[in-house]
Design goal:
single chain; eight-stranded mixed β-sheet; binds guanosine-5'-diphosphate; binds magnesium ion; elongated
Length: 292
Amino acid sequence: MGLFKKFRDAWFAPMSFDSLDDDFYDRLEESLILADVGMDVALDATEKLRRRAYDDRLLTADQVKGALRDILAEKLEVGDSRLDLYTQPSVILVIGVNGVGKTTSIGKMAHQLKKQGKKVLLCAGDTFRAAAADQLGIWANRAGRANVDIVRQHEGADPGAVLFDALAAAKSRRSDVVLVDTAGRLHNKANLMKELAKLRKIIDRELPGAAKETLLVLDATTGQNGLIQARQFKETAGLTGIVLTKLDGTAKGGIVIAIAQELQVPVKFVGLGEGIGDLAPFDAKEFVSDLF
Ligand code: GDP
Ligand code: MG
């Protein structure tokens, strides 16, 4: 699929898998660390490969690559990477700090869902910043106004009230999917977490039987630092998946493995640019088979 071409070219393409000496394992470990898979994963994957190479008497470069693929794939097995959208309506709450790409990713998802024939409703839940709802409106237009509605209120409105309106509109208009944008920053972090917990409660209360996703958007270029924020969101929000944006701007694609291991939540989408088509579903099997 080539999504991780930069990653492969930077770390694995230059490696020779022909002789399994100490030098090989040192270089592998180093490449994995530089590729941002995280220290624990790098050490563990290298050690596992060393053991498997010995136990299974791996000889050829292809056998070694196959074993490494299996080991990395196991690290990505933390849940289904497909969206659960099996009810009408279903709801996707999109959270994350400012600037990671929440609104952009919502625009891209709306576009994809619309192409699948779904009726999409956007909820402008970021009422904190003046331009946020306008930005979402622009994405709604790009995604195709005919089947992509938006519910918004004035700046400073209670995000819970906007969400309540949006869910009511989704029920009466028979929308298939509600995509909820949220603020990435409020007056302080505790406020933000409280607000997000409240939004989740409103969704549970208004649509008790609905399929719900809570997607945390992370910026791949922030690497391991992004993971620290992610932990706080995980505690509050009950994440069901990750959208990893800006992979076009980094070769450190190993962060997908670090995320899966650290959060035990599957990466569901990867962002590959600023255009409406630049969002791809993430598939762990494709990812590892594409590495070497
Ligand atoms: P939000 O504050 O989380 O809603 O972030 P925005 O959606 O406003 O995006 C912040 C910036 O990141 C914008 O300039 C986007 O164009 C950019 N952006 C979002 N996703 C991607 C991506 O996958 N690749 C690149 N290169 N830029 C992105
Ligand atoms: Mg935004």
